[in-house]
């Protein structure tokens, strides 16, 4: 890796809300001064809440939308100035795939081969390779309408890769897949990446992103808030430590309803405790405790010593999701 294949520089995109008369009633700032570079040969994960700007970014990257300002280059070529040349370098699968339901995988690939003007022998060779990679050999004569969602997505991947693109752009590729299909797709993408394919994928499945991506960007309200390698983000995750979720009885040994709240300061003073929050939960109180390591026995002992009845305690290790939630909180600066 080293050469930049995707360069997004200072991109702005605003959607305008208009009335029946055409009068502008409001606006939505989808992207604001978005800058991002992706290196050749990496798998880049693009994360964000719904409405954060992920799909708008991808549509601008593909030339489907034009940014209001800024520039986008693929392998040094402007998508705005040379759209046809750039699109020859990209394979794209939107979240909602569209395939000709009455055709078979072989028929679709044959049609696309003619569209891209690919030599017939080369097309057959490439199609055979891709059908094997995605495990479609047994389904080539079945019409698309009879295939599962997982198989349809594999066919869509074959279509996106048939012209040997340098970059594969995927919008929510694991959406709607069962665990088996998700694992199969993950392994196929890793296999393609080892052959040199650069992959840009948008996803909300953080565990999958953590398994497959080399770098991650998080977008929030149209702005890039995080850009780092998975290994560096894992270090940040480790710094967060663990979360302990407890449910305890409201009353203490003297029958005071707020009794448990009197002992929060004592828990906060314990070694390895970073933060304690208390929330009402029916007849109980829910405690959320951030700790550097699992000290569930010591905390339980402290509460029981003071006659606070503990109903449950659940340790939970920090994950990439914690970083994601921190970076995408409303009005997070």
TrEMBL record:
UniProt keyword terms in alphabetical order: ATP-binding, Nucleotide-binding, Transport
One GO MF term attached to the UniProt entry: ATP hydrolysis activity
SMART domains in the cross-refs: AAA
PROSITE patterns cross-referenced by the UniProt entry: ABC_TRANSPORTER_2
Family annotation (Gene3D superfamilies): P-loop containing nucleotide triphosphate hydrolases
InterPro entries: AAA+_ATPase (IPR003593), ABC_transporter-like_ATP-bd (IPR003439), ABC_transporter_ATP-binding (IPR050763), P-loop_NTPase (IPR027417)
Domain ABC transporter: 6-246
CDD domains linked to this entry: ABC_DR_subfamily_A
PANTHER family per record: ABC TRANSPORTER ATP-BINDING PROTEIN (PTHR42711), ABC TRANSPORTER ATP-BINDING PROTEIN NATA (PTHR42711:SF5)
Similarity section: Belongs to the ABC transporter superfamily.
Protein name in the entry: ABC transporter domain-containing protein
Source species of the chain: Marine Group III euryarchaeote CG-Bathy1
